[in-house]
């Protein structure tokens, strides 16, 4: 070990010191390199039950926002081309307000026709009245002549006949007038039916027709309803509760609802009703060809006034549950208590 | 006397370095192989560790690991949310799909659908871009190991188009994740998007990830979830362990590494034992002289122990340094990504070194202790 | 036994097992070694002199008999007590020196002190003083394999004397040396090892140095055949 100063031994001093330094560095590396296996807080808030619900029994569900009236798919009674569109999405409409007009030219032509027939019938009535008046005056003249020789018997009979004929012509003309008036009324009704009106007051949610499009009584192109509307004040939310959880649901309690992606926006929704029928779950999965064997109870809640919710939006909801302890395993003999 | 003992040991450089080599080699072999073994089987839990927010994993009772799973009805999410103690719960989809790359190659990938709103289930860090890129249409985030597998020629993965189940997918980001055991390419996307990428089956929701309210333990909440929903709920640790156990039970890896570790031990015993015995034999006359002069057996034991301790300490340190250097040097290699040395492993190899030295030291000592001091007069 | 006896051996019998048979090496030896004298133990190879001396200095158990060293019955001591007794009272000079190759001359000479628990530096210091007395003070920092045979022997002598033992046992000190060096060593030994309160036993069969003895014990086939100040004529 000529390289080393005297009295310093490589194997006895330098090597152990190097080993010590090395092991310290190694230990430092090992401990600093240990993977972080701790859990981290979510960066965005996921939906969660808060307040009293956080620690107590509860039922969670997902739901869709809908109008209080549910969504009304406006249809058309008659088919035809759309000639005029009177509303656009977001409009508030009053009950009976026209929404769109379907081509009414054919009906209007029939109306004109009927009106002409009315005029014609009226003229015929006038003509018949004139004839009747002429005939009755002649008959009265003949009857005022006492001298049987002055007027022949046949003359009188003819005059009587003319008078009767004129009367019946009048009746015919009157009947024709009625028929023409009925025809005009029918045309008017049809014209009215070609104007589609709002069945209730509410908000226009979607308009899927444009002027010039053909509307059929069988529904519009692509299966879309022509116009969707509903009463959006208040909004309702239709919450799906898994049938397994449904028995625990505390009917009538307020639900805590938050929109998707904004879990911190929580509102209290008032219970409205539960649908009497348990239906197969079909919403929320975003897949058209969804096949599920899960059935859900749909419960409707009224949302308070808020700008955070829109029709069709998905929400997460928490509802208090009837606290009957942990659910016992299902046994065939057991009958679950109904509240 | 220990001063003399140490000098006796280092005086014979050849044997001293032979002993050091034996111990260092054993330590290196045991530490390094155990490290690789532990890291390799921990790859079975990478799926769990890659979702750092989840404290409880809820799954169908037949699901075993993140990759061996069976989907649940979508309402399972609501059932989990209904359990007290669950702070939050989000859907998590894991499935495999085939992807067609831009060059037309077919590659099996794991699709991971994370919660649309919160992105819970994504790895904590990103290599490129941010997690929010998933809000772009058809966006997927690839894991960094996947970049290596899918783009071997070093292309920039960002913006690359893939075809998944006849749908377009565009890589918008690269996640910093721990590779899976099979190093399969992983694509992260939103849950709703993942449903489109994975061929339709009846149920798709493979996992529900849940958080635990403050004051509750994950294990307690997991038990409650199991009780209330009939699903299987495991804490993060349990589920990670399940992934590891699955690898252990279904591969020959533990046997192979076990054999290597035993070999390391045997080689250590052989080299160290032989060298130490030779060293003692060379010095047997000196030891005999010391015994005659009046050094007690216990002091002799102390001397040999000091020699063994020096060799053991230095050799062990060299071995551990070797392992650390190895892991450090290969930390850039995708295969070794995330490899670390669990602190228990150096302790295990330390115990092995102690055992090796105890065995060999005892064998060597026996000859010293059996030496008649009278033999020095012959 | 009398007062000046350093070693008082009585009825020493020693058997060795050789396979199935037992070989009796010592056949009942009674002898005294006195302080202040240089006692030679002389005999042919196989006469039992090494065995006798081993027994007398407490490193080999006799089959029968008792040995008192400075009044202590050494074979009634426990193992550890015996080892410590040796350490405190006996100095050894081995034929092959048995120096530790990896420590220097001073440290080798200081081994008994170190074994007694003295710190390294004072022990070395004391050893160096002794080495100077032995005229190899300038070699104190050299390793044994850097020394000549004579120098190594002086180191071995220093090691035997450094802790001032009351009994010095010396095994064939002149075997590897020519006549003049042998005499020099023996002179040296007489000079440093012989003291009024110290006994010195020298095992040898080197007849060139018999005249330096104060007393000679001759062993033949495990028996003492001569005990006197001079060598018998037949040797």
What does this structure look like?
Chain A: This is Efflux RND transporter periplasmic adaptor subunit. Chain A: Keywords: Coiled coil, Membrane, Transmembrane, Transmembrane helix. Chain A: The chain crosses the membrane at residues 13-31. With 339 residues, chain A is α+β, with helices and mostly antiparallel strands. Chain A is built from 4 helices and 14 strands. Chain A folds into 3 domains: 51-68 and 232-320, Efflux pump adaptor protein, beta barrel domain (Elongation Factor Tu (Ef-tu), domain 3), CATH 2.40.30.170; 76-100 and 197-224, OB fold (Dihydrolipoamide Acetyltransferase, E2P), CATH 2.40.50; 105-193. The longest helix of chain A is centred in the middle third of the chain and has 41 residues, at 153-193. The N and C termini of chain A lie far apart (93 Å). Mean pLDDT of chain A is 81; it is low at 284-290 and 326-339. Chain B has 2 domains: 2-43 and 252-377, no CATH class; 73-230, no CATH class. In chain B, a hairpin with a 5-residue loop joins strand 2 (86-100) and strand 3 (106-114). Chain C has a single domain, classed as Rossmann fold (3-Layer(aba) Sandwich). Chain C has helices at residues 49-56, 79-89, 105-109, 111-116, 120-133, 149-161, 179-193; strands spanning 5-18, 21-34, 38-43, 64-69, 72-73, 90-93, 167-171, 199-204, 215-220, 223-228. In chain C, the strands form 2 sheets. Chain C has a 6-stranded mixed sheet. Chain C has a 4-stranded antiparallel sheet with strand order 2-1-4-5, covered by helices on one side. The model of chain C has no long low-confidence stretch (mean pLDDT 86). At the A-B interface, helix 1, strand 1 and strand 10 of A face helix 1, helix 2, helix 4, strand 2 and helix 6 of B.
